[in-house]
Amino acid sequence: MRYTRAGQLVLSDSMMKVYQDCGARFWFNYLENPEPELQPRLAAFEFGTVIHSMFYDFFKRRDPDLKMFQSPANFANVFRGRWLNIDSPNRTNRGRSKAAVLWRTPDEKEKLSSLGYKICYDFYQRNIKMPLSHLLVEAYFIVNITNEQNGRGYALQGYIDRLELRQSRLPASFRAEDLGKALKESRPLFNNGEQAGHIMVIDYKSGNKMVPPAALQLDTQFSCYDLAVELLYPAAPRRFAIENVRDGSHIPTNRGDGERQVLRERIFKIGRSIEKEQFPLASNMYKCQNCAFLRQCASLQNVAGRKGIHPEDLMRASSPLVRGPRKAPSLFEWKDGEIVGITDEQRLSQAEKLRHKPTQMSFFFGQEEHEALAEDVSHTAQDTFVETIASPEEWQPDGESTAALEDWNQTQAS
Ligand code: SF4
Q1: Ligand 1 pocket check for 24: Cβ under 6 Å
Q2: HSE value, Cβ hemisphere, 13 Å, CA-based, for 94
């Protein structure tokens, strides 16, 4: 977990979605992280990642003389090369072994190769005339949201797949070093109330099922983008859409004050529960059947049952929410998705003594928590908030190497 220097817990939309789905899954994913090499690599997810990396490289033009930028076929062939090598190397950058990709059918890899080739070929044709100066890709943002009344707050981070300046009269450039130049230069124009076009925020989707527009309207991901873009480009008119990368079609959506309020309440509710180390188990067969931690969760509950300790108390004892690099190794010895031993019996007995009162085995909280949350929410509605873009100096890269932070591609926030 990461904190800003001011001590604000950093959340993202996907982290909050995992937490809302199941608190225990959040704990497994972000705190305990048992045997990461066993985590299944789903073909659809890997496919989306490679497609995103192709689009990113297309606009980044790190080496503009590369053959891949000379024709759509060359570009699509680079995709094919990356995709066919998806199983190798089977090690992460840190030298850990990775699980093999899970193919649903023997020909899935080949089918996705043909699909990806077409997607990249068409993408090249659609975008080769797009001036690099008018867009940003994989734009990173981090926003501080602070309640002025009590100083409490959280930081929200995320990436925007594509940020595009449209209908602008600023000069177009196709040079790699001018990536995002017009966007940056448009900021004072918007501030002065000049007609400088509008900003288009695009999220790529590579799946074959498109999101129904009504569901898209409720998705908080775009509310996060709305907040970040408003802070980065105040006064700029902004529009939002999902781009179906299979055919380049767009599904538009919009955001306003109502969605902003929902987002703020959600951040404060979830952030507060995480800080209180509440990791309620969903224990819902519809959620559990597709959970990547199903075996680990069953094993944890089994140990909890045998020891007579509530699973949440075991979770807190093993991997508590702490600032800074993880202070103690996991309480559990994990092997093939099972707990095969306890690494520290003393910590286990302390967990038993210090245990919190039993919490309900569902997302819904006990009476006391419920009242506390109700109070928080009513405050949230009345209180005033300060929302600011955080600068790199404010980040406290807890549990992260600074090298990892350098990899981040920041939206220019100043
Ligand atoms: S198996 Fe079910 S209860 Fe356990 S972490 Fe996964 S979703 Fe949550």
Answers
A1: yes
A2: 7
